[in-house]
């Protein structure tokens, strides 16, 4: 009986039935906890799409690359600052947009895909992720891509598309029958893919426009709520990639050019919010909004330097799109919560793994002066 007393923490002399009751209560708590883990891990719902299954699929398609992001695996850290124009102050109560406010930013320019040592290539989607550090511990984390729309509308379609677009070992390209099957089941993705394919690919990271694709909401001090899509539009006029660039032998030509440019001078983008009108789709990132929508230039982002991924810098940040300051709120787009959950799963896995150096290691340690 003293062992039971020890296990249950019961005082000596408690009757056996009371001890058994205590033991049963402890057992119930343990069973509940186990069920909780099983639920979160998806073991109770083999058909449901869980964050773990999404990340398993990335690993299935790309192979294991311990320590790296499961998507946008090849990247370079950048730092700089955002100077608000004041045009956002009437739309959002976020202090970030107050006229004259300058906010430090740290971020990451990357290439989409789960291959950290892939050669830079023209068609690969480019991305810009940023973390704005506001006063009082607030942050805005955002990740944007250089495409006009996102290829899928739902997390389930994303999961299916990962496999449908997996390159065939023999050809290096997706199996056309499998991809066409996916597009037949998802006509919205077929339309989005055509828009993505038709985009002009620019010379490099510095003259690319990066878009949030998902809609958000700007919430003003007076409660006004405006659906928006964000974009970082380069100050530099876009120039198309040249034929010479495309046949470069340098596997990191896009990243090397970016690091070299940042060594010379700062690179600037305008944060432009496109204001949605009633009826514009906020829960479907495959659909563009009409081209005549009003825009607001919220301020200027100046990137001033780059650093290779290393412990404690952008390598160890999760650019979760739902880390938002007051004044920026999520829309009803189902991709947002799926992204948040999947990024967390990717982050948790990579944080616990041994790291190998990034392929993008030649960048200079110091930034350019503003
Ligand atoms: C359900 C849809 C999506 C899934 C499952 C997904 C998955 C992922 C994952 C796993 C990562 C790596 C996260 C990490 O380890 O830190 C990532 C990175 C990224 N994703 Fe997505 N993504 C989705 C949709 C989108 C959309 C709509 C955008 C819109 C622009 C986007 C932009 C980015 C960017 C910019 C990064 C790189 C962030 C960085 O440099 O750390 N993703 N994505």
From TrEMBL:
One GO location term (cellular component): cytoplasm
Gene Ontology BP terms: hydrogen peroxide catabolic process; response to hydrogen peroxide
InterPro entries, per the entry: Catalase, Catalase_core, Catalase_sf, Catalase_SrpA-type_pred
Binding site for heme: 343
Keywords in alphabetical order: Heme, Iron, Metal-binding, Oxidoreductase, Peroxidase
Active site: 72
Top-rank lineage group of the source organism: Bacteria
GO terms, molecular function: catalase activity; heme binding; metal ion binding
Domain Catalase core as annotated: residue spans: 33-364
EC number(s) stated in the UniProt entry for this protein: 1.11.1.-
CDD domains: srpA_like
Positions of region (Disordered): 347-370
Required cofactor names: heme
Role of this protein: Has an organic peroxide-dependent peroxidase activity.
PANTHER family linked to this entry: CATALASE
Family of this protein: Belongs to the catalase family.
Protein name: Catalase-related peroxidase
């Amino acid at each position: 009986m003293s062992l039971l007393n020890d296990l249950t923490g019961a005082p000596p002399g408690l009757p056996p039935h009371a001890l058994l009751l205590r033991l049963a209560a402890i057992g119930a708590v343990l069973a509940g906890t186990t069920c909780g883990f099983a639920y979160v891990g998806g073991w109770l719902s083999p058909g449901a799409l869980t964050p773990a299954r999404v990340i398993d699929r990335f690993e299935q398609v790309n192979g294991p690359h311990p320590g790296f992001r499961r998507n946008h695996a090849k990247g370079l850290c950048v730092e700089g600052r955002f100077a608000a124009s004041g045009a956002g102050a009437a739309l959002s109560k976020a202090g970030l947009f107050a006229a004259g406010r300058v906010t430090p930013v740290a971020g990451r320019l990357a290439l989409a895909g789960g291959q950290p040592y892939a050669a830079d290539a023209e068609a690969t989607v480019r991305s810009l992720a940023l973390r704005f550090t506001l006063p009082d511990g607030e942050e805005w984390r955002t990740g944007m891509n250089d495409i006009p729309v996102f290829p899928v509308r739902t997390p389930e379609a994303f999961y299916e598309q990962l496999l449908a677009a997996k390159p065939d070992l023999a050809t290096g390209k997706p199996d056309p029958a499998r991809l066409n099957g996916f597009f037949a089941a998802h006509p919205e993705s077929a339309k989005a893919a055509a828009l993505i394919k038709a985009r002009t690919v620019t010379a490099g990271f510095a003259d690319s426009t990066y878009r949030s694709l998902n809609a958000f909401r700007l919430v003003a001090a007076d409660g006004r709520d405006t659906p928006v899509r964000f974009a970082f539009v380069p100050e530099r006029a876009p120039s198309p990639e040249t034929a010479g660039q495309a046949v470069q032998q340098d596997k990191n030509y896009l990243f090397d050019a970016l690091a070299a440019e940042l060594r010379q001078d700062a690179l600037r983008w305008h944060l432009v919010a496109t204001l949605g009108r009633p009826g514009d789709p906020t829960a479907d990132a495959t659909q563009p909004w009409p081209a005549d929508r009003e825009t607001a230039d919220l301020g200027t982002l100046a990137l001033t330097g780059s650093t290779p991924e290393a412990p404690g810098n952008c390598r160890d940040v999760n650019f979760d799109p739902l880390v938002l300051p007051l004044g920026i709120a999520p829309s009803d787009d189902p991709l947002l919560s799926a992204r948040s959950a999947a990024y967390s799963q990717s982050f948790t896995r990579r944080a616990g793994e041994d790291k190998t150096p990034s392929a993008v290691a030649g960048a200079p340690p110091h930034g350019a002066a503003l």
